[in-house]
Amino acid sequence: MQKTFQIKRVDRTKLYPLGVSFVEEGLRVSAVCEKEEETGIVLYDRRHQEGVRVPFPETCKIGAVCAMIIAGYRDKSMSYLFYCGKDTYQDPFCKRVENLCGYGVRKPALPRCKAAGEPYDWGDDANIYIPYEEMILYALHVRGYTKHRSSGVRWKGTYAGLTEKIPYLRELGINMVLLMPAYEFDEIMPENTVAKTMEEMVLSYKQEFLPSETEEKKPRINYWGYQPGLYYVPKSAYAHGKDAVEEYKDMVRAFHGAGIGVAMQFYFPQEMSPVEMLDILKYWVLEYHIDGFHLMSASLSMKLIAKEPLLAKTMLLAGEGDIHGCAGKTRNLSGLSDGFLFDMRRFLKGDDNMINQFLLRVRENKDEVGVVNSIARWDGFRLMDLVSYDRKHNEANGEDNQDGTDYNCSWNCGTEGKSRRKNIQELRLQQMKNAVTLLFMSQGTPLLYGGDEFANTQEGNNNPYCQDNETAWIKWNMTASGRALLEYTKFMIGLRKAHRILHSKTLLRGIDTLSCGFPDISFHGREAWRPDTTQASRCMGIMYCGFYGAEGETEDECFFYIAVNMHWEVNCLGLPKLPKGKCWMFRASTGGDIPDIEDDGSSQELCVPARTIVLCTAREAAEKSEKAERKKAGGNKK
């Protein structure tokens, strides 16, 4: 039985902030005490390895909050828990926890909390502000991103391992990573509960854990982490060493040094107050230099959060419905577009009556808030699975394939699952390139899920919440199609970042506001300037006029023409006439053979192969002639 600590003096102190910390006078302790039973702190130190109780005196309590200073207590190696009557519990405001168990290991006892350590030397590091129009967002799971044996890092599945991937992310063109929950939570699910499906936990954000109707023989691992936890502490099991706090900060500083921001997902239970949520976010901005958040909760008050001055330059991402009417003074708020995800998936596989939705999503942009687009992300199929499976395959989750969403809007390209047929493999690669093009050629902020850029697969599992294994881990041993997709993704990201018109800060209006003879964006059908928006249409030409993104400078390639054909047959689209001295040149294609465009800038037709997107850019006519002569000379020489 734990003894009561014999102390010389306990002093009253300020009630807030809550938590435990060392101050000049000794150890400061502040906690919420809602029950009438004796409440206090259990200290574990060199003299009291079994723990010793220090109760809150009645004189140190106001309302349901108690605060005291244990005068003269200096043992900074100590750990602690709070107690109320016979029960012990963790301090929800603690700043560190003991890291004594590995990931996925059942804890023999409740992990103890620790007081904050010495101040971290950030040097000249500072939070990074990246406007939504400049952002290339990349979501990943800290453990799963580098845990696979093929990741090539030393510290697999950790913050340090993620840091080792910075050169790769820079080469890819990423400037903001979004970490799935990396605050402290217990990944071992209690035996009397089950992890809810992603459809329940993430898409709605409105649920709480429910008791399991039948006890499970083996507890499940909550690999994703969408659950309550210790919100002021980075997850200790994601660190290779014992000090997760320092390793997390080292990671953030390294990312900032590479010009990459760091954002993190937070799932808050319905009963948590918006004020407490705001306190947590401010702490991570100040203590960990975090640059953004993706917030999930049934009780979000985005109007309160968005107007917090400290978060004025912090990315605040939430559901589309959560941000309605909540814009702050700065454009720091954004909504994750489910509309883009499902509309573009349906358009990609050639569904009827999608052309108008396609046109809406391509140019969707808002002045007061950001719009974040994705085609594949954590909740649902990976990009490779989106083109390989017509239905989910979640049998390994142990729920008779009943978990996960059934609404995937996917197409397997003719064969369910893996295929060695060359034509199937080529079509899938083509469809993945189409998806990447639609994502990065649209105006909203693109969100890419880690591994999708090189065709990583989850073998058809669209809800691997409990799969801490190769199903959910990123496999870095790429196939030939994976390497081809990776190079294409790099190309598209580089192209987007190089040209302002492809990522405008404001909505492109489709009119000629500069009196230059061209609108900022225009749409074209079989004939230039006459788009076909009928129900059966699956083809569209999109022209971006770079004059509207020049910012006082004339770009070399100031016009882009994106010929989109999601039909299963060849279709022709009209190329609009360019200014005198300019002509269209082929730049890239997602599949099929594209002949050289020979013209003098006048209107003509471009025949686009089935299920293909062709990208053309405007060049000076003389430059094209020189290239043609060099090509001709090279052919004659051969």
Note down, in words, how this protein is organized.
The structure is a single chain. An 8-stranded parallel β-barrel has the order 13-14-17-18-19-20-21-22. Helix 8 packs across helix 9 and helix 11 runs parallel beside helix 12. The protein has 13 helices and 29 strands. The longest helix has 19 residues, at 422-440. By secondary structure, the chain is α/β, with parallel strands linked by helices.
Number of β-strand runs: 29
The dominant shape is elongated
Mean pLDDT: 90
Largest sheet: 8 strands, parallel, barrel
**What fraction of residues sit in β-strands?**
15-25%
State the strand order across the main sheet.
Answer: 13-14-17-18-19-20-21-22
Number of helical stretches of at least 4 residues: 13
What does the radius of gyration come to?
28 Å
Uncertain regions spanning at least 5 consecutive residues = 202-216, 633-638
The percent of residues in helical segments reads 10-25%
Distance between the termini: 91 Å
Q: Please identify the structural class as seen in this structure.
A: alpha/beta
Summed up:
The protein has about 650 residues and is α/β, with parallel strands linked by helices. The longest helix has 19 residues, at about 420-440. It is elongated.
Secondary structure: elements and pairs:
Blueprint lengths: L2 E2 L5 E3 L6 E5 L2 E7 L6 E6 L7 E4 L5 E2 L2 E7 L7 E6 L2 E3 L6 E2 L15 E2 L22 E4 L1 H5 L12 H6 L1 H7 L3 E4 L3 E2 L13 H6 L26 E5 L9 H14 L3 E7 L6 H15 L3 E5 L5 H5 L8 E5 L13 E4 L1 H11 L6 H9 L6 E4 L9 H4 L35 H19 L4 E5 L30 H19 L22 E4 L14 E7 L13 E7 L5 E5 L6 E8 L14 E5 L3 E9 H17 L1
Parallel strand pairs: 1-6, 13-14, 13-22, 14-17, 17-18, 18-19, 19-20, 20-21, 21-22
Antiparallel strand pairs: 2-8, 3-4, 4-8, 5-6, 5-9, 7-8, 9-10, 11-12, 15-16, 23-24, 24-25, 25-29, 26-28, 27-29
Helix pairs in contact: 8-9, 11-12
